[in-house]
Amino acid sequence: MSFLRLKIGLYAAVVAAVFVLASYKLYRGNDARIPQKEEVLIKAMLQGLSQAHYQPEQIDDNFSRRVFDLYLKRIDYSKKFLLQSDVAQLRKFQTDIDDQVKRGSHEFLDLATRLVDQRTKEAQALYRELLSKPMDFATEESFQTDFEKAQYPADKNAQRDEWRRYLKYLTMTRLVEIQDEQAKRDPKKATAPALSATEMEAEARKRVLKYFDEQFNDLMQNDDNDRLALWANTIANTYDPHTEYFAPKDKESFDIAMTGRFEGIGATLQEKDGQIKVADIIPGSASYRQGQLKAGDIIQRVAQGAAEPISVEGMRLDKAITYIRGAKGTEVRLTVKKPDGSTQVIPIVRDVVIVEETYAQSAVINENGKKIGYLRLPTFYANFNDEQGGRSSAEDVKKEIEKLKTEGVQGIVFDLRSNGGGSLTDAVEMAGLFIDSGPVVQVRSGQGSAQVLNDRDPRVQYNGPLVVMVNKYSASASEILAAAIQDYKRGVVMGSTSTYGKGTVQRIFNLDDALPAEFNAIKPFGSLKLTTQKFYRINGGSTQFKGVVPDIVLPDAYSYLDQGEKDSEYPLKWDEISPARYRTWPQQPALDKLKAASNTRVANSPSFKLVQEIVERMRKRKDDTSVSLKLTAYRAEQEQAKAESKRYEELQKAAQPLAIAPLATDLRAVQSDTVKQNRARRLSKNLVKDINLREAVAVVKDQIDAPQVTRR
C-alpha cells in the first residue's frame, strides 16, 4: 500500500470513529422512552453530519427553510397536485422543522403526507375523466413544459385546466408517434388495416391512460419506508448534492454500480424533476458499445423487446430501473428525448459490463507525416483492496505511454472526456508521469490546514507535447489531473467551457454499524454518504463549483445544458487557499500562439460552425419552454429538430477521417483473442470522425512544428 493511500485510509478511519461516537452518544442519558425508527434515523444522521460533514449546518430556521423548499419540490415537482391553499398550510411549518427534528416529532411530514395522498386520489379521478373524451388538436393553445416556471393552481378549476393541458400535451406526443408508425407501415406485410385519424387519437389517449394508471399505482404503493427514505435524503441533500441517504435497497443498487459488474444496459441514471436522465454511460457496457444512448438523454419509455413500451416519465427511479435492468442477452428498447428536442428509439441488448473497457487504451494517429499518440482513460480505477490481479489506472497509463513511445509518437492527446473521476491516489501518481516531483493537489477537511499530496517520483515518464481533452462531464479526479497539467503549464487543456466542478470527497458510513445494539430491533437503517473534504489546486483555487476552464475552448453541443455542479441543489461554493510551492514546466507550450491558430481553424470549419449554430438554437429552445398544443405546429417543430440532427450527421460523414489505428504491439499481443482485437479496433472506429479530437491533434502538431518556450 502506498504512503499516500495509507494517509487517506487513516483519515477515513478517524472520520468513521467520530461518526460512530457521535451516533452512540445520541440516546445516552435519562430518557427511558423507546424512540421510533424515524426519530432514531434522523437524529443519527444529523449527529453524524454535524460532526463529520465538511461544512456542517446549524439546525436552525435557515436549515428549516432549505428542507421545506427541497421537500416541497420533491413531493410535487410538477405543481399538479397541491393547491395554493395546501402550500399555505405547509408553509406554517417553514421555520419549525428544525425544532421538530430536535424533539423527535414530525408534524410537517405528517401533514404533507396527508395532503399529497388526498390530492393524488383526486388527480387520479381527474385524469381518468379527462382521458375518456376525444381531444381537439386544432385549437391554438399552449402548455408550459418547465415546471419551475409554473405556479401552484389557485383552486380546483385552475388545477383541472392544468391537468387538461398536460394530458393533451402527452396525448399529442403519443399521437405523433402513432402517426409515424402508420406512415412507415408496409401494407403488403401488415396483418391489420391502417388506423383512421379517430382511431389513432383514441389509441394515443389509451397509451397515456395506461401510463398514468401505472404511475399512480406506484404512488399509492408508497409505504412508511419509502416516505422515510425520501425525507431523510431530502435532509441530507440540503448539505450538498453529494451527501445522500441510502435506504438498504438503494445501497444495494449503489454497490452494484460501484462494482462495475451487473447484467443490464450499463447506464448511470438519475431522477430530476420527474424525469429519468442519463447521467453517465458506464465504459464497457452494452450502452457504451451500442453508442446511441448519451449522457443528458431523457428516457421516456421502456419496452422489453417488441412489447408495448411502458412510460417512465415521473416514475420513481428505483421502479424505472427495474424495467431497464434485465438478464444478459435480452433486448430493451428505450424511447429517449435528445437534448435537441427530438425523440429516438434505441434498442440495446443487455449484457454483463465488460471490465476491460474501463481500462486505459491507446492508439496511433498519423497526421501529415507526424505520428501522434492517443490515450483514452474512461475512469480512475484502482486496486483499493490490494487484491491479486487488481489494476491501477496510473500503472496502466504508464504502460500505455511506454507503448506509445515505442511506436515513436511525437506528441500525445490524453482524453479525459466524460471521465467522472475515481481514485485520488491514481490521479496524483498519474500527474507525476508528466512532471518531475512536486505538489499535485491540496486536500482540506472542514477544520484544519490543507494537506498537500505530492508526486514523489523525480522521473518524468513522458516529456513531449501534450494535450489533455476534457468536457462538461469530466469530474473529480479528472479535474485534479487537468488542473495540475494547467498549473504546471505542462500541456494544453482543451474542451468545453468548463469541466463539471465536483471538487469534494465523500465517505460512506453504515448507520447500523454506527448505532448501538439497543436499536437492533428496528434495524436496518441504511447508509449515509457524506462530503468530508474538498480539493484545491496547487495554485490555491478550488475545483469545486467552477471546475477547470480549458486553455482552448471548443464549441460543444452540450454546452447549453445546466448539468454542472453549480446547477445542482445547494452545492458547496468555490473558494481558495494559499497556493502550494511549485515550479512550472521549463519547456512550456506557447499558449497564445496555439490558441490563436486553433481559433482560426475552428472559425473556418463548417462542422464547428454548425455545432455553434445548433448550440444557439438549443439555447433558445431551452429558454422557450412553452409548447404549442396545435398538432400541425408541434409536428413542424419536431421536423425541424430532426432536420438539424440529420444535417449535422451528414456533415460529420463528409468530414475527412482521422488516420487512427490500434497499436501494432496490442494487435500482436491478442492475435488469438477476437474480443480484444475488436476492442482495439472499436476505439479507432469511434474516433475517426471526432472533430474535437481532430482539433486536439492539430494543436499537438502545432507544438511539434513550433518549439516550446523555455522558461527558467
TrEMBL record:
What residue ranges carry the coiled-coil annotation? none
PROSITE patterns in the cross-refs: PDZ
For this protein, the record's Gene3D superfamilies field holds: 2-enoyl-CoA Hydratase, Chain A, domain 1 (3.90.226.10), 2.30.42.10
Please name the InterPro entries in this protein's record.
ClpP/crotonase-like_dom_sf, PDZ, PDZ_sf, Peptidase_S41A, Tail-specific_protease, Tail_Prtase_C, TSP_N
What are the PDZ domain coordinates in residue numbering? Answer: 255-327
Q: Name one GO cellular component term.
A: outer membrane-bounded periplasmic space
Q: Which UniProt keywords apply?
A: Hydrolase, Protease, Serine protease
Q: What single Pfam family name could you report for this chain, choosing any that match?
A: DUF3340
Annotated GO molecular function terms are: endopeptidase activity; serine-type peptidase activity
Alphabetized CDD domains for the sequence: cpPDZ_CPP-like (cd06782), Peptidase_S41_CPP (cd07560)
Its GO biological process annotations read: proteolysis; signal transduction
Q: Which SUPFAM superfamilies match?
A: ClpP/crotonase, PDZ domain-like
Which NCBIfam families does the record match to this protein? prc (TIGR00225)
UniProt family annotation? Belongs to the peptidase S41A family.
PANTHER family per UniProt: CARBOXYL-TERMINAL-PROCESSING PEPTIDASE 3, CHLOROPLASTIC, TAIL-SPECIFIC PROTEASE
- Know the name of this protein? Tail-specific protease
From which source organism is this entry?
Hymenobacter oligotrophus
Lineage of the species this protein comes from: Bacteria, Pseudomonadati, Bacteroidota, Cytophagia, Cytophagales
